[in-house]
Amino acid sequence: MSNILDICPLVRQNAHMSTLHEIGNAVRTRRMEMGLTQDTLARISGLSRSTVNAVEKQSIGNLSISKAVALLESIGLSMSVTTTGATHASSSHRKVAPARSALERAAATAGVSYQSAMTARQLETALVTDDAPLRIRPHLQVLLDEAPVSLLAKVVDEIHAEKGMAKARVWDRMRHLAHELQCFRPMWQ
């Protein structure tokens, strides 16, 4: 019986270290893809640079859930809790409408205030070819300043998956457009 008690703290510690490892790697990867410094990420997440650094190096002793969520959400990531072995029998019988692509959702988000909408194709072209026609520039500015970072991250992931374009290059293009359009969001500074 004492062996089990001796092992349990190690199991808990290993699970905690695994989670911090996953968070640290995900934050570092996304931050670098986005072209952000640790200082900039600290500013947009509301945390200190030393906390960001410790998370990325997985050397942080204790990371509260609120700090982890703030850090992850600032770069379009999230945490979830799932149960293992759970089945969803009731959901397997429901018909689910096909989801719109991230590009479609982003284009629709950016066009809410305008008479003419920006299409997903126009958005994709602007991010892939560096060609942003004047008629969609206001839409792009709204998108880059106001869309949730998680939606922007999904757009990057979608372009990467469909066009084979490096994620860092798509983030770079977004940043370039944000500078051209004089966007105010701190992540573009």
From TrEMBL:
Gene3D superfamilies: lambda repressor-like DNA-binding domains. GO terms for molecular function: DNA binding. SMART domains: HTH_XRE (SM00530). Residues 27-82 form the HTH cro/C1-type domain. InterPro entries: Cro/C1-type_HTH, Lambda_DNA-bd_dom_sf. This is Helix-turn-helix domain-containing protein. It comes from Variovorax gossypii.
